[in-house]
Write a structure and sequence with these properties.
eight-stranded antiparallel beta sheet, binds 1-deoxynojirimycin, Beta-galactosidase, Chain A, domain 5, globular, alpha+beta, binds calcium ion, 673 residues, 16% helix, single chain, ten-stranded antiparallel beta sheet
């Protein structure tokens, strides 16, 4: 490996020393380590930077423009090439938690240095990394005489896709990303947020997104040209309220723009380019960052059985919380989420959001006593910090609140930003919001606190750098099955999320609703069978998984033993079979032993599948405990029937499984001695 790096650095030096006049072409290519993916970049005859991407001989991205517009100039043309340099990397890094323990980061890098010929002669550098399963690039704004503080008013980055492939997308303005993902040819899309999941051919699946969103604004894309043979997408950033897109000071870097490229749909889920394009972990000692499961005083509010604010139906009382702590201790859950415990909810929430107080409990909630009680039983409270979008008010209290939680031994918080805008003005997904979220994550890291971020900016793999950011919402989650006037999430929704929102990072979906009818509105409830609720625990990934129902609903339920058995940290993830939006089977191996957990689920259509257990180690026997849809089960009319059976299986076993309409199965595979 060392020799390889040395060779590349020598080559890099040689190339950068070549005078431009000697370089015939203002263009260079870089191939992935195996040579299957090749990126070409250069400057055209008006000095405009561009790139294109191939898989073997097959064109994937055609000539696509690069560059930016600034308030006081243009960084998109009039460039001359200063030079190219190359590097290569092959490392394997360890995740404190994740869908697998070790991640290989193997790429070839090409850096293109540009300077403008006239005027301010500004410099711009573009760094490309090409992996065997995709690519990423970013803009670097070097320190220079004629670029200090600057404002980006447009990012001109293009992604010109060959053909007009089908893509799964979410509109850029879906509130908090809580919308339904839809499939249509790229040319038919409006402005959409990323990730964009592209089904190009039976053997070409891609995901377009960004990685390491730091001090920049979130990426959206929209088609700007569709011709026979191609569709051209252009970057569209979320603005500040005055129209600025990004406020920066050189030296500065943009987030990575990335495209994963897979032969098979299942590969999208195990592709790790996004994580690899993030910076290594900045938290020196990560031993305090844990994984686990939690219950909480939460669904009861969404069921309108209790209120967040103080009053006769207040949910966050000492007595009620104690019941949840006792339940958690009894069933092996490490956390109890409590919402509505602090002053602020009694206000006209949303409008008066700036009154939330993150240290002062309501008088009927013995914050200190409850946490001591929880700790004595091996459990901890998870403090809820709803801000109502008042980010400044929260920032002013961060140190005081996090110091208090740390002193009390509270290890995790759930943050929330329910409001159209932050601080009455700025969009959550703008640079303003991105800066705020980062402040919270960094402050929390200093105080050894893990964060579950609701109403977030779309995740971009930041958990590699800050593993205390354990999950985000940014999804049409379970709560929609409580109060959505249109009936709740449709059955196919859960079969889309693993290939769309989940590619951006762990989701706090809050699975495990066992009482599947009789909710707030007659037709609004989870449109799944009970077995599919169990499958959510394996298919939807987060290192802190909730059993979201009111605890009474878990009483005397044999299905609950699967949730009790489930870990939430994995050494390996395999997707044996799937079709986006139709069905998916996910298998994950426990981080702590050799056991596996499998979840399968289908859309509104019943399905019979043959599941090969060839992911099990050969020569090993496993006891399989299978939780599957019972006879006659189907999601809306008869969601509860479940059959639990036990089998002995091995690497060669093939399980014949029936999934009811919007049903599924969950399997625990216990390695036999
Ligand atoms: C929306 C969040 O998604 C939900 O989990 C929470 O209960 C409410 N906001 C109140 O903060
Ligand atoms: Ca929400």
């Amino acid at each position: 490996m060392k020799t390889k790096i040395l060779k590349h650095s020598i080559l890099a030096v040689c190339l950068s020393l070549l005078p431009m006049a000697m370089m015939a072409k203002q263009e260079a290519t870089v191939s992935s380590p195996s040579g299957n993916i090749t990126l070409t970049t250069g400057v055209d005859n008006v000095g405009r930077p561009y790139y294109s991407l191939n898989r073997g001989k097959e064109e994937i991205l055609l000539h696509s423009a690069l560059g930016l517009k600034l308030k006081d100039g243009d960084l998109s043309n009039d460039f001359r090439l200063i030079g190219f340099s190359r590097a290569t990397k092959d490392e394997t890094w360890h995740q404190p938690w994740g869908e697998e323990d070790d991640v290989r980061n193997h790429y070839n890098e090409l850096t293109m240095k540009l300077a403008q010929k006239k005027g301010l002669q500004r410099q711009l550098t573009i760094v490309f990394r090409v992996f065997d399963d995709g690519m990423g690039f970013r803009y670097v704004f070097p320190q220079q005489k004629n670029l200090s503080d600057f404002i980006i008013t447009d990012e001109l980055t293009e992604f010109c896709f060959k053909g007009d492939p089908e893509a799964w997308t979410l509109p850029f303005d879906a509130d908090y990303y809580e919308g339904l993902w839809t499939k249509a040819p790229l040319s038919k899309k409006q402005k959409v947020c990323t990730p964009v999941t592209i089904e190009a051919k039976p053997d070409l699946y891609m995901m377009l997104h960004e990685a390491n969103l730091t001090d920049y604004s979130s990426l959206n894309v929209k088609p700007i040209e569709a011709k026979e043979g191609y569709v051209r997408l252009k970057a569209e950033l979320v603005p500040w309220s005055n129209g600025d897109l990004v406020r920066a000071k050189a030296p500065f870097v943009s987030p990575w723009r990335m495209l994963s490229v897979e032969d098979h749909v299942c590969g999208l889920i195990t592709n790790r380019i996004m994580l690899n394009l993030n910076d290594p972990c900045k938290i020196k000692d990560t031993s305090w960052i844990t994984t686990g499961k939690y219950v909480g005083v939460w669904w009861t509010y969404h069921m309108q059985h209790a209120t967040w604010g103080i009053g006769p139906k207040h949910g966050a009382t000492t007595e009620n919380t104690k019941r949840y702590i006792d339940f958690a201790a009894e069933h092996g859950f490490k956390g109890v989420l409590v919402e509505g415990w602090n002053y602020g909810w009694e206000n006209d929430w949303g409008k008066e959001g700036d009154k939330f107080n993150f240290t002062k409990p309501y008088p009927d909630y013995d914050f200190d006593g409850l946490q001591k009680y929880a700790l004595s039983k091996g459990v901890s409270l998870i403090a809820h910090n709803e801000t109502g979008g008042a980010a400044k008010n929260y920032e002013e209290q961060l140190e005081a609140a996090f110091s208090l939680y740390e002193k009390m031994g509270i290890k995790a918080i759930k943050t929330g930003y329910v409001n159209k805008v932050m601080d009455n003005k700025e969009l959550q997904h703008s640079q303003y919001g991105v800066r705020h979220y980062r402040k919270v994550i960094e402050a929390a890291a200093r105080h050894h606190i893990m964060v579950v971020n609701h109403e977030p900016a779309m995740p971009t793999g930041l958990q590699r750098t800050y593993p205390n950011l354990i999950a985000s919402e940014g999804v049409r989650g379970q709560e929609w099955n409580a109060w959505d006037g249109a009936g709740g999430n449709p059955p196919y929704h859960l079969c889309v999320l693993p290939f769309t929102r989940q590619l951006a990072g762990p989701i706090d979906f809050t699975p495990g609703i066992f009482k599947l009818e009789g909710q707030v509105y007659a037709h609004t409830h989870p449109h799944t069978t009970l077995a599919k609720q169990l499958a959510e625990y394996v298919v939807i990934y987060t290192p802190w998984q909730m059993a979201a129902d009111e605890i009474e609903n878990y009483k005397d339920q044999p299905a609950f033993t699967f949730i009790e058995a489930m870990p939430s940290n994995w050494q390996k993830t395999v997707i044996p079979m799937a079709e986006i939006g139709k069905y998916i089977v996910t298998a994950r191996q426990n981080r702590d032993n050799q056991d596996w957990f499998v979840g399968g689920m289908t859309d509104e259509n019943a399905r019979d599948i043959s599941l090969k257990l060839d992911f099990l180690a050969p020569g090993t026997t496993y006891k399989a405990i299978i939780y599957k849809d019972g006879p006659d089960a189907e999601y809306d009319k008869n969601p509860y029937p479940m059959t639990i059976e036990q089998l002995v299986v091995n690497h060669d076993s093939v399980l014949k499984l029936h999934m009811a309409k919007s049903g599924g199965f969950a399997i625990q595979l216990i390695k036999q001695a």
